Amino acid sequence: MSPALFHRAILRSAAVLVPESQRAEWLAEWRSELWHVRRDPGGRNVAAFCLGAFRDAFWLRRNGPDTGSNPGAHDFLRLNVPPPPAGIESFPDAGVPALSSPVQCLSWLAALGLLCLAAALLLPGARAVLRCSLYPRNLVMLSPAERGDPSVQNGFFDPYPTVSREQFEALKGHSDGQFTGLAFYVPVRLTVETPSGKRTLSVARTTADLFRVVGQRRILPGSGEAWQIEDEAALAALPASTEGFVVGRLRYDGLRNSRFQFFRLCDRSFVLGWVVLVVFLCAWILFAIIKSVSPGGHPRRIGPRRGLFLAAKTLLVLPIVLFGTLDLASLGGAVSPLFFHIAVAGSLFAVRWIHTDQRKRCPVCLRLLANPVRIGESSRILLEWHGTELMCPRGHGLLYVPEWPAIWSRRQRWMGLGPSWSGLF
Predict the structure, then answer these.
(1) Which residue ranges make up each domain of the chain?
(2) What is the DSSP pairing of strand 163-164 with strand 243-250?
(3) What pLDDT, on a 0 to 100 scale, did the predictor assign at position 194?
(4) CB 159 within 8 A of CB 222
């Protein structure tokens, strides 16, 4: 392919991004510019020039007349958008296009939250935690008192068996009617033959009375990937020291037994949810303290509209953090002890994103600010203002972000535009 055909192919590929109503005129202008560039005696890089058409086409799709904004006011910025300011905040040209309007932002957050929930329902470890919230309060897991907190053995992170078969038989024979049902199951590793070859599965050996105790919900701590139903004789043939899990239904609200403690299965989901909520709120408080002492921490006044948008955004981000953390912590099967660390990191990142996204939006229409323009020079900061100006795509005003947090201009400043400016947008 000749260089001329190659350059025209690049322009035709970029033209696909341009709105159809402007495509022919846009392509004709770029071909005309290409004709001049190829004859430039300075020897400019023609291929690099053609690749710049993609950026121009993408800008035109986002900010053209079809999107509700007028490109005429800042049309000269399309080919040379300056980098974000190095001062208080980092403002991209228009952020993520899908999040530009408040409705789009909330819709994408809701969709992401549903996606994280769907992933949690598909992962076995996360699904076990979510499904346990549906169990009745009298369904409990038991463990010996000398082993410590029963939630550690039967609860969140990597459950492991602690009750021997001998202890289970003693508990079953001397329960004094405190349970309406008791069941015992033992996790084992079995090698089975599958169409794709041999595979090692985590299987729980138990008797049929287990499902009478727990009902149809068969997701329990340490239950593995499958169940192996056996009769009483097979389970009784196991060595007395074989350790497993004990699940039962309390007849009364408490357990009167000095040798065993219990942990309610329905508490697994609620406790994890409270952990993430507390971590998220702590991250908010920590971030607010940090921003209050930082040079650019003074926010613009939050009105009712912006406050409602901030609250809705926070309420949608919180489930994303909860289910996303649960998804990442349960990738290995059971919920990993890294759950808390992932929750802390996710909450800090989420709070930072919420705050940054809020400061990048117009206080009137809540759209992301666009068209950054660098004003002034760093060498004249003592006599002139130096920073970046961003414009609301609907023409409601301008945001001034100082490049260096000087004493007299260390905070962002919003300047509203009157109705006389509406003709430009």
Answers:
(1) 3-67, 97-123+269-359, 136-265, 370-424
(2) antiparallel
(3) 73
(4) yes
